[in-house]
Hints:
Elements lengths: L1 E5 L10 E3 L11 E8 L2 H8 L9 E3 L2 E8 L11
Amino acid sequence: MEAFMLKKPCKAQNLKINEINCQKIKPGHVLVKIKAFGINRSEIYTKRGDSPNVKFPRVIGIELAGEIFDASNSNFKKEKK
């Protein structure tokens, strides 16, 4: 899976897409195939290093639109095509 993974605070031009390992979904969570995402204000603060309680590495881009790829044991359903 690919994601913007912050290893440390950086400037916007230094953001890079990284390959990350997503082996197992936590109970009650879902895996979403993302079609679009946004980086919100709190993530901009995190990216700049202005969020002292945030630990790195950290995936950013939590506002998203997409389709459920794996519903795990949640109440959501994978879309049938």
